[in-house]
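Give me the 3D structure for Transcriptional regulator, GntR family.
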Amino acid sequence: MKDSPVNSLLKELIYFDKTSTTSVYIQISQQIINAIQRSYLKEGSALPGTRIFSQLLHIHRNTAVAVYEELAAQGWVEIIPNKGTFVLLPKPKTAKIKAITNQVEDAYRYPKTTGFPFQTSFHLVATDTFSEAKYILNDGQPDLRLHPIHEFSKWYSASMKRKSLITKWNSSSKTKYATFENQLCNYLNASRGFHITPNNLVSTRSTELSLYVISRLLIRRKDVVLVGNLSNYNANMIFQEVGADIKTIPTDANGLDINYIEKHFTKGKIRCVYVCANRDYPTTNTLSAERRLQLLQLAKKYQFAIIEDDFDYDFQLEGSAMVPMASSDGNGMVIYLGKLGQSLFPSFQTGFVVAPENVISEAKNYLQILDKQGDLIQEQLLSELIYEGEIHRLLKKNTVIYKRRRDYTFDCFKRYFNDSIQIKKPSGGLAIWIEFTPSISLVQLAEQVSKLDVFLPKTLLYQDKNTCAIRFGFGHLNEEEIEIVIRKLKLAYNIITSS
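Predicted structure for Transcriptional regulator, GntR family (499 residues):
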């Protein structure tokens, strides 16, 4: 029996790696399924008994039993007591719909376009571009390689085992605030100078979702929204999608020019001002204390909302970050957007909104439509990381690394480009603002550097009659990669300036 054709075939086809994270019985099951799909094993073929099967592959008999049970559960084999295990071909679960036209084959081809008209949105056109380049630049994202994989596996496993998890998921009512909301409140009160309760807080999947929900609540078509003259591309797309009339405001080394707002707008004409007070996007300039106070006073006088996007507050590399405007707002003029867990994998980061209670109540109602389920495992995990102090520890640990990378990036640009650029070392964040003097064609720079295996996305290029700059994210690159990328940028720069 050991030398039967089926046994010889199985012995030849099946290979497994005991060091793999995938269980051995799953690896073997997948290969048997593949053999059935390729017709190497015909329907009705008898597989060897579990004792012989285990001897063939030199595995434990319990593993052999698990393989057959997995195959049977998926419908690939039938186990008949006292007879054996036989190959099946699973029947299609859905019947084909017969075509009502002469072109029968069209019924089994999914259409590329709708048979009805609908209004497409220019603002929702994807800006993501893809590249096979070895080095891909971004606007300042964390390095996922710093994610604590082994510790995280333990934390995640512990969260999954909580007996209260199923109860929370099945709950149809909420009589008190979740542990996560209380822990997040405590964290924000301690780290950002807030004095909030869960009534003032709602968590979302991301800062982009936070901004989308707030924009839907605040902005009606043709409402005026003020942003910096360069500003955040994604934020602008969200504002345009909800129908806002976007007006740009000059910025300088101290952030938004508040005097300009007061001179060119009147009470009742502004719906909201979007500002990255801690580090302006993309220039990394901090809104000064004087201008923060001036903006708060003007918001009260003109009755407009301030959307304060503090997307990288946690990455303060030296000194102390200025506390959010929202923490000193006694008139309910500021809606604060932030992010938690940026030292973790993206799927375990969370956005949040801090605002007066009536806004938060409406935002939660909106999220009941968009994202009712939420992510209880993520919330449980983050609650424990906050309570145990792990979030703070990870930030401290990574801040040392990012500070070193920032300094190295700054030194490399100065060394390679000398007086060809203007550059200022930011106090925080994971990106540096690089201005070219004299001006060059940034599109040509991106094209040339792509030939050197570096991808410079168009969303990082800022060029008009007054600006020629790029936002260079260094967080995801180590020091060796930073040196390579900047050297290649210099080579591309030399090519376009000498032609």
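Residues 99-105 have pLDDT under 50 and may be disordered. Let me know if you want a second pass.
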